[in-house]
Amino acid sequence: MNDPGTDLLACAGDQDFATVLADPPWQFANRTGKMAPEHRRLTRYPTMTLDVIRALPVNRLLADTAHLYLWVPNALLAEGMQVLSDWGFTYKTNLVWYKVRADGGPDRRGVGFYFRNVTELVLFGTHGRNARTLAAGRRMPDLLASRKREHSRKPDELYEVIEACSPEPRLELFARHRRMGWTQWGDGLVASGSTAKAITEDQES
């Protein structure tokens, strides 16, 4: 298996990115090091240790000013903050995905030790000076309300928010579903045995 950091640098090439979206395959464990019972189902896809995620050379891929949108489970908020900092960003705020049923009520199928989770967080960080969102960002609410889809899939509506609020060029890490106009890195996009591969949709026929 190739080193993830090496693959990521190869994917990015010489491009410096102004916007990064990431949905890392977090590992869930309690203080004893054992996986939390309610997260055992997450072993259906490969995960990465926190150290491996933190070590990804994202800071080498950034434009002078850049935005980060980082998905993080509620239980791993502190770890998400570490990753955000290690990648070269300063935390500013967050977006909340509120998972709803067809009737608009809360989707109570979530898991959790203390409360039944119906939300997930997207940490927003900036890199460089004067890294404000585009004009649309000042009108954009920080709440996404949408229904859950297949396991671990995040709402497509976030792409629309990012494309309205943050500049190109854009990079998605741990991508699973192709999106026009993005450079995407993730083994879920391709059938090859490599760890990751770049896909830039607007270059495909």
Structure description:
The protein has four helices and eight strands, in the order αβαβαβββαβββ. The chain is an alpha/beta fold and 205 residues long. The protein has a single domain, classed as Rossmann fold. It has an eight-stranded mixed sheet with strand order 5-3-4-2-1-6-7-8, sandwiched between helices. α2 links the parallel β1 and β2. The C terminus is likely disordered.
Name some characteristics of this structure.
205 residues, alpha/beta, 4 helices, 8 strands, 24% strand, globular, disordered C terminus
Structural class: alpha/beta
Helical content class: 10-25%
Major sheet: 8 strands, mixed
The CATH superfamily name is: Vaccinia Virus protein VP39
Q: What is the number of strand segments?
A: 8
Distance between the termini: 29 Å
> Using only CA atoms, what is the Rg?
17 Å
What proportion of the residues form beta strands (DSSP E)?
Answer: 15-25%
Structure annotation, total helices: 4
Just name the CATH architecture. Answer: 3-Layer(aba) Sandwich
